[in-house]
Amino acid sequence: MQVMMAMTRFLADNLSPDSVPSHIGTDRDLLVQRMTGKDPYAELKHKSNQMALELLPDLQRLVEELGDEQARFRRAALVAAAANAIEFDVSGREFDLEELRDILARVEHDLAIDEVDAFRELCQNSHEVLYLMDNAGEVVLDMVLISEIRKLGPRVIAYVKGGPVLNDATMEDALEVGLDRYADEVRNTGAAAIGVNLERNSQEFREALFSAELIVAKGMGNYESMTEFDPPCPIVHILRTKCEPVARHVGVPRNKNVVLIRRPAV
User: Fold this and answer.
1) Per-residue pLDDT tens digits for 53-70
2) Most exposed residue of 142, 186, 197, 263, measured as fewest CB within 10 angstroms of its CB?
3) What is the DSSP string of 185-200?
4) How many CB atoms neighbour CB 3 within 10 A?
5) Are 246 and 225 in contact (CB under 8 A)?
6) Would you give the DSSP letter of residue 228?
7) What angle do CA 259, 188, 85 make, to 5 degrees?
């Protein structure tokens, strides 16, 4: 009851038509953490990480079975997009290889914006890629794509959140799943904040963001927050349109997969 009362006061003081959903969500989650004294998503994130790690060998085989480099990159991008189609937190959930193939086929079918080939070309012409991670569990599927990006030449710097917020991946999650063995470096954004929050993120992260050659941004939180400012370089958004406002903004129906490149204004 105390949390609910504090939450309604917070929303009354801060919610407006101009509010950024990811920023409101951050403050809401941190308020709950302060009042309860714990991270309510800690156990869920651990379970998600472990379940995703069980899938990793099969997902790697699904990519590596393709001889063509372009086809491998495309399938790896679909694997990253599929992260939102798999419920990592369902206890006891098991997948076989054929079910994973079906999931990837559905991801391909629901790919409403497909800029995968242009994404690959950008990677080929970049020296370094900033990869902004989303949720725990999903990180493991992103590692498949990170491997394919690195084969094209660029270094990959993976960024996780600077502290627990919702079920977003932190450095603890990154080390648990071995992200540091796939990316060239793993850093944090300097803030427990959903998406990109320039008022809270560290100076180091802001400098890296605005000097980047190419950014890969996973999930709706990154999309919601990064569309609040002009892209400093090409930004590849990989997400599923889980809610109507984001779907409308992207320009596709709800529950579609998107690989969308936002580019700086000429």
Assistant:
1) 988 998 899 899 998 999
2) 263
3) EEEE-SS--SS--TTT
4) 12
5) no
6) T
7) 35
Task: Give the type of residue at 248.
Answer: R
Beta bridge partners of 113: 258
CATH code, 42-262: 3.40.50.10880
Structure tokens at 34: 């302060």
pLDDT tens per residue across span 96-113:
677 778 888 888 889 999
Count the helix, strand and coil residues of the chain and give each as a percent rounded to the nearest 5. Answer: 50, 15, 35
Distances (CA, A) of 10 to 7, 14, 25, 55, 209: 5, 6, 11, 40, 30
**Residue carrying the six token digits 């990837």:** 104
**Strand duo 128-132 + 111-114: pairing:** unpaired
Read off the tokens for 186.
């793993």
Structure-token pair, residue 129 = 């890629």
Q: Diameter of the chain by CA atoms?
A: 58
Q: Are 210 and 195 in contact (CB under 8 A)?
A: no
- Digit-coded pLDDT (tens) for 108-149: 889 999 999 999 999 999 999 999 999 998 999 999 999 999
Task: Tell me how far apart the alpha carbons of residues 142 and 128 are, in angstroms, rounded to a whole number.
Answer: 16
Secondary structure class of 90 (helix, strand, coil): coil
Task: Yes or no: say if 28 and 7 are a contact pair by the CB < 8 Å rule.
Answer: yes
Q: Which two tokens stand for residue 96?
A: 């076989």
Q: Provide the strand spans (E) within the chain.
A: 111-114, 128-132, 155-160, 185-188, 214-218, 235-240, 257-262
Structure tokens at 196: 């990109």
Q: Distance (Å, rounded) from C-alpha 165 to C-alpha 15?
A: 19
